[in-house]
Specification:
Layout (H helix, E strand, L loop, with lengths): L2 H12 L1 H4 L3 E6 L2 E15 L4 E4 L6 E4 L5 E4 L3 E9 L4 E10 L11 E11 L3 E7 L3 H7 L24 E6 L6 E10 L15 E12 L2 E10 L11 E11 L4 E9 L4 E12 L2 E12 L1 H9 L5 E12 L4 E9 L5 E2 L10 E2 L5 E9 L1
Antiparallel strand pairs: 1-2, 2-5, 2-6, 2-22, 3-4, 6-7, 7-8, 8-9, 9-10, 10-11, 11-12, 12-13, 13-14, 14-15, 15-16, 16-17, 17-18, 18-19, 19-22, 20-21
Length: 364
């Protein structure tokens, strides 16, 4: 097999054939500007049902009851540009925005990605701004195939392990070997004067290495997840992970991944993608085991310290720009006590419902 075999398999898994559609606004004298995006709508149901009872009271409040709902599913648009400075050096930039397209609203659009950089074929790329965590680009990429739910490794969303004010370096591709390194900065300026963290800032690092040869892709990576006043919901330890993907044929590829945090969770993932003509089917299974403090907390609630999560989905490309899809996912989260007081027996988080979604996406 040739290296293009794996590239084809990964592209099919990520829906790149559709996402690659873009309108070139300007392309002249080494300067190019593209407009791209997608509009995605669907119907979803099930998923995480949360039952909340205020401590010491009997009034109940139900959050996300799991009924069917018409929803926007990651609609967005963006601009990406590049300019050739020399035969080896180019400048590039990207700005991407998300919007809620399933109902009339006057909310401002949200910035999803916004960064700029310099790329040298000999020296690599240096970029700064708001972009996905490199842990997702390395370890998580083979498993990031779902339109909505289904991906369980640490990823590129907002939060301690995701997007933020970052500087990153990507090495040139050396015979299939490539290194990713980044640092994300959290300022202390937003803290209340005199509080912990108000006179300091926090930097989290992440990165990894990828090696691709013929039909095989191997990746190792890490992401710091610090616990400080400047970082929301940090676990206070480093995430380590690795993944492998192999394209047995141009149509079928399988993947294996592992991720660990000593006081949080161990995750083992196994999945596949099969694509033929306009169809694609993909499925993943995760075994998640609690560790350290997380395990002790679950044991104190008489809850299971491990769970088995599964997902399956299918996509059909009606055309090069229009796609329909359906996905099913069950996280198998344990029911745990989330409060105390006289009503402790009722204070449960119920998260065992199967989530489903179906919809369509138009790429431009």
């Amino acid at each position: 097999m040739k290296k293009t075999l794996l590239a084809t398999a990964i592209a099919g898994a990520l829906g790149v054939s559709a996402a690659a559609q873009a309108a070139t606004v300007y392309d002249q004298d080494g300067t190019r500007l593209d407009l791209y995006g997608r509009i995605a709508m669907g119907i979803q149901g099930g998923g995480s049902d949360t039952k909340v009872v205020n401590e010491g009271e009997t009034d109940e409040r139900i959050e996300k009851a799991g009924g069917s709902e018409f929803v926007n599913i990651g609609s967005r648009f963006g601009l990406r540009g590049s300019q050739q400075i020399t035969s080896d050096l180019s400048a590039y930039g990207r700005a991407e925005f998300r919007f809620n397209g399933d109902e009339v609203n006057r909310d401002a659009m949200q910035v999803r990605n916004s960064y700029l950089g310099l790329k040298s074929n000999q020296m690599g790329s240096l970029q700064a701004g708001n972009f996905d965590n490199f842990y997702l680009n390395t370890v998580g990429a083979p498993f990031d195939v779902y339109v909505v739910n289904g991906y369980e490794f640490a990823g590129g969303g907002t939060g301690a392990k995701g997007q933020g004010d970052s500087i990153g370096y990507i090495s040139p591709n050396l015979e299939g070997f490539q290194v990713y390194l980044m640092g994300k900065h959290y300022t202390g300026n937003e803290q209340i004067a005199g509080s912990d963290g108000s006179n300091s800032s926090t930097i989290e690092t992440a990165g990894g290495a990828v090696y691709e040869v013929d039909a095989l892709r191997l990746a190792l990576g890490y992401a710091e997840d610090k616990d400080s006043p400047n970082v929301a919901d940090g676990s206070g330890e480093v995430i380590y992970g690795g993944s492998a993907q192999f394209a047995f044929t141009p149509e079928f590829s399988a993947r294996l991944g592992y991720e660990t945090q000593s006081d949080n969770e161990d995750k083992l993932g196994l999945g596949f993608t099969y694509g033929i003509d306009a169809w694609k089917v993909y499925a993943d299974y995760y075994h998640v085991s609690a560790n350290g403090d997380n395990k002790e907390a679950l044991q104190a609630q008489d809850a299971s310290t491990s769970r088995n999560s599964w997902s399956i989905g299918t996509q059909y490309n009606v055309s090069s720009n229009f796609q329909v899809f359906a996905e099913v996912n069950e996280e198998d989260q344990p029911s745990i006590t989330i409060g105390g007081g006289e009503t402790a027996d009722e204070l449960r988080s119920i998260r065992d419902s199967v989530y489903w979604v179906t919809g369509a996406r138009y790429f431009f």
